[in-house]
Amino acid sequence: MPIMTDAPFLSSPADYAAAVATAVQAATAYYTDGGTPLGDDEYDALLRALATYEEAHPDEVLPDSPSGKVAGGAVQGDVPHSVPMLSLDNVFSAEELESWAAGLERRLGHPVAAWCVEPKLDGLAVAARYRAGRLQQLITRGDGLAGEDITHAADAVLGLPAVLTEPIDVELRGEVLLTSAQFEHANQVRTAHGATPFANPRNGAAGTLRAKDRPYRIELTFFGYGAHGLPGLDHAALLLRLADLGVGTAATTAAHPLRCTTLVEVQQRVEEIAVLRSELPFGIDGVVIKADSSADQQEAGSGSRAPRWAVARKLAAEHKVTRLLDVEWNVGRTGIIAPRAVLEPVVIDGVTVTYATLHNPADITRRDLMIGDRVFVRRAGDVIPRVEAPLVDERTGAEQPIAFPEVCPRCGDAIDREEQRWRCVRGRNCQLVASISYAVGRDQLDIEGLGGTRAVQLVEAGLVTDLADLWTLTREQFLGLERMGETSTDNLLAAIEAARTRPLNRVFCALGVRGTGRTMSRRIATHFGSMAAIRAADADTLAQVDGIGTEKARVIVAELAELAPLLDRLAARGVGTAVTAPQAPASSAVAPDQEDAAAGPLAGAAVVVTGTMTGPLAELTRNEMNELIERAGGKASSSVSKRATLLVAGEKAGSKRAKAEELGIPVSTPEEFAALVADYLA
Ligand code: IVH
Q1: Higher-confidence residue: 233 or 6?
Q2: Which residue range forms the structural domain that includes residue 527?
Q3: Fewest Cβ atoms nearer than 10 Å: which of 276, 310, 417, 496?
Q4: What is the CATH classification number for the domain harbouring 52?
Q5: Are 649 and 656 a contacting pair, CB within 8 Å?
């Protein structure tokens, strides 16, 4: 994954001096409070440009240039390090990594015995001194030679025990960070105390480590990656030893360190960690490749800034800084009024981002955002980009407050502000056309020919005021609509009639209850067996369904109460009343009963589907695939985790396949899978 940002070209001493000034300013912000006016990619590109210029003009090198200095020379401390805390050299592509490795082997005069590949954790380097197994002192990296004493913060750092499992003298080296959960929690606690939220986890970790006498506690996490005082151990063995001592390491995570004997394996592992990145519960900004053998490490030695036996393969930044241009308010299918940030376009990890989610109005207030702000935007993998925080220090005074809507931006009716997410008081009826179109979609009631334009016609003609009206429509009413001939009318009437007996999961899904997509609708239908039983359930009963927490259960109960008149009308028309067990999707055939499913070929299996299906499964939508899995006794899930037992990988399967292979989960082709569940297919 190459870095997208090209290094700026410095053509004159004045350009060079200006670039040094910018880099010093950015390094100072980055290494002291974790904030930065430049994105990581831009900073790296600037340093590369400085290095290129300095190589060509060695006489002009300015003394405060950050290149070649630990922490860009930005920080100093007063506790001397026993052994300097070095930085790492960077490479930015597979080719650069290959030539770095070749250079190291040339220097050694023999091949490297083995490599160790591990995540480059995006936090702050610390040294933790233990005497007789007891934690004595915690120190920041500072300028690499001396750091700041932050022992006061030690007891809030998970993975850094007060007492090791053995009474030894050792100095641990590693990274302190906020995991995603710790970051979210930290910001909740901070806003509850009237403090501004942290812009990002790195900034939060830096602020938390330094802070003293805060009225609240924020937990951090330590991952060890080195030690002084445990000589002779190879790197992978050292990490195991640290874990035995009770110290946190990345070994417990999906991106665990891996010993590789060939460079091909190293490159593969780098790619795997890059793919896993977006799903890791903590930030990484690269992958570190180390010579594993302690003999190789000693032979290679270190320069003044970095060891020669290790290198960081940087990954493109997931964070970027850009400008918030506007906030749009969109009304969703269920009447939710959701804010969306309009951004100055910015490329993050190869994708141009122009919009980002802002969640809800309370979130905007909490993050203290203004139009015109420079903001941190994060995009991780497939996750929707989100605005994390404004760079408050960069405000010019020209920023404008964000205007919140007074009335529903779609229909002009009032807004219900009871919950954090605002809603039009008309709820679904504010978006009747969208609600009907969703309900008749292929994965719900599957009524072909009733797409967007027909739904608009029916609503505008006043023939449909809610979903249940579909089953009251007459032939004459359809024929009265524009561009509606006899054949299409008859086809449509037949499709509407066929939809009356769709299985419970599909009818339930068609209601568009918040938080219940296709998967959840299937689980609810299987659990309760009838619409009457679902309607009779209270929040506690609903919370028994896998994946429904107490909050979601409460929302579902409230929405079902709101939908009661519609549900009564649907029931009166025989829609969603007959079904008591999972059935075949409309486009396939047999419907084995629930006992069959319990004994089916997938009993106890957790199956994930990815890529384009082929062969007998080519026509099935993802929802129909999931229904098939459940009919055959399995559980369909959308993400590959340790719990998954099989991945069905079709054409163009991407990261899920890599992850399944990484976790040792069996992978089958669509054809193999079709053979396995043949009895449950049409
Ligand atoms: S090894 C002498 N391993 O990255 C060994 N560093 O950009 C030097 N870092 O200063 C460090 N994850 O703060 C090492 N797995 C890892 C790391 C790691 C993050 C940090 C560390 C270092 C910085 C260099």
Answers
A1: 233
A2: 504-596
A3: 417
A4: 1.10.287
A5: yes
Q: How confident is the model at residue 21 (pLDDT cuts 50, 70, 90)?
A: confident
Q: HSE on the CB side for 597, CA within 13 Å?
A: 18
10 Å CB burial of residue 178 (0-12, 13-18, 19+) is: buried
Q: What is the distance in A from the centroid of ligand 1 to the CA of 224?
A: 10
Query: Whole-angstrom Cα distance, residue 325 to residue 345?
Result: 10
Examine residue 3 and state whether it is found in any structural domain, yes or no: no
pTM value surpassing 0.90: no
The CA distances from residue 169 to 73, 511, 541, in Å, are 30, 64, 55
Atom 21, ligand 1: which residue's CA is nearest?
A: 125
279: nearest Cα among 639, 665, 39, 607: 639
* CA 497–ligand 1 middle distance (angstroms): 65
Catalytic annotation, residues: 120
Beta pairing class for 157-158 and 284-291: unpaired
Total number of domains in the chain: 6
Q: Which of 262, 287, 314 is the last residue in one of the domains? A: 314
C-alpha–C-alpha distance, residues 122 and 24, integer Å:
20
Does 293 lie in the same domain as 153? Answer: yes
pLDDT of residue 150: 94
If we measure between CA atoms, which residue out of 463, 557, 568, 477 comes closest to residue 513? 557
User: Does residue 622 share a domain with residue 574?
Assistant: no
Sheet with 310-314, strands from edge to edge, namely 89-91, 310-314, 284-291, 115-121, 258-260
Helices (H), strands (E): how many in the chain? 23, 23
